[in-house]
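Let us practice reading a record.
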Amino acid sequence: MKGLPGLRLSLVLAGLISGAVPATAQDFRRGLSAFNRGEYGETLQQWLPLARLEDADSQAGLGYLYFKGLGVPQDYAEAAIWFGRAAEHGQPEAQLLLGLLNYYGEGVMQSYVLAYKWCELAQSNGASYALPCREAAELRMTQAELAESARLVDDWFARHQHPAP
């Protein structure tokens, strides 16, 4: 997957890994320690139960394991599933990475509308480094597609009872 201009995947990953405040912090930290040691099987064992309990940071972490093929076969479709679950919970790094998957059509059908939506939400939820993703998608969209993306962003905020920025 080619990088977008100005977007540093390392910044995304740093936010994903360091910003975690999971439901079961001790289990997440065990998984994070295993991740940092390169023990991805142990990471998976720690994060999978939490992810199934809807812990957004664990879901995003699992998405990243599949995104990079760490301890599991690289699988963008599986990454998109886990990023999607975390993104719906408002996890900004998962929103950005889901936006990138939509932008490139990796594991999902390519959609600049959805790429814009997820990257806009990521930026609105604190991932300031999501701007290049949103701008790249915007350059490829019609006015009607931009309006559709804006509606999707507003719908997400309405479902999550947050005012749109």
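A brief commentary: The two ends are 30 Å apart (CA to CA).
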